[in-house]
Amino acid sequence: MYKELIDAALEARENAYVPYSGFKVGSAVLMEDDTIFNGCNIENASYGATNCAERTAIFNAVSHGHTKIKALAVVGDIHNFTYPCGICRQVMVEFAENREIPIIIIKNKDEYLVKTMEDILPGAFTKIDLDAEKEVKYV
Ligand code: THU
């Protein structure tokens, strides 16, 4: 079902620029109009300037005018399941169409887990929290 997205993430992983960690990551995002954008991790000699694969993919989509994510796939270690880092989860939720969108955690083309945005970042801080007129909810 997610074959195209998974293939795009695996393909992007090949371009990972990882001279420091050697840890390749690839990601792909499916946007509202079914367009797919991908990205890899891009490291830097100033380590903190490194950009994760998920953010590269999302920034690639947004740079092309696409701001609503329908699904996101990520692949890191091909012998294990690599989950998105905390910063990437926060960037994802900014552009997630809703909290139920699938987040596909890939080990290889045949083995992957499907989580939701809400699973991996419950109770996220989003633009709604910045709205002074919002209804106050106690949950
Ligand atoms: N990395 C990602 O690309 N995505 C994640 O969600 C986790 C970490 C990258 C950053 C760095 O290039 C390497 O993995 C090791 O941390």
Compact summary:
With 139 residues, the protein is an alpha+beta fold. The chain has helices at 3-13, 53-63, 86-95, 117-120; strands spanning 26-31, 36-40, 69-75, 102-108, 111-116.
Structural class: alpha+beta
Order of helices and strands, N to C?
A: HEEHEHEEH
What's the CATH C level? Answer: Alpha Beta
Overall spatial form: globular
Biggest sheet character: 5 strands, mixed
Q: Strand-residue fraction?
A: 15-25%
CATH architectural grouping: 3-Layer(aba) Sandwich
Look up the CATH topology. Answer: Cytidine Deaminase, domain 2
CATH superfamily name?
A: Cytidine Deaminase, domain 2
Radius of gyration from the alpha-carbon trace, in angstroms: 15 Å
Q: What percent of the residues sit in helical stretches (DSSP H or I)?
A: 25-40%
N-end to C-end Cα span: 35 Å
Small molecules in complex? tetrahydrodeoxyuridine
What is the count of distinct domains? 1
**Average pLDDT across residues?**
96
Number of helices: 4
Low-confidence stretches: none
Biggest sheet strand line-up: 2-1-3-4-5
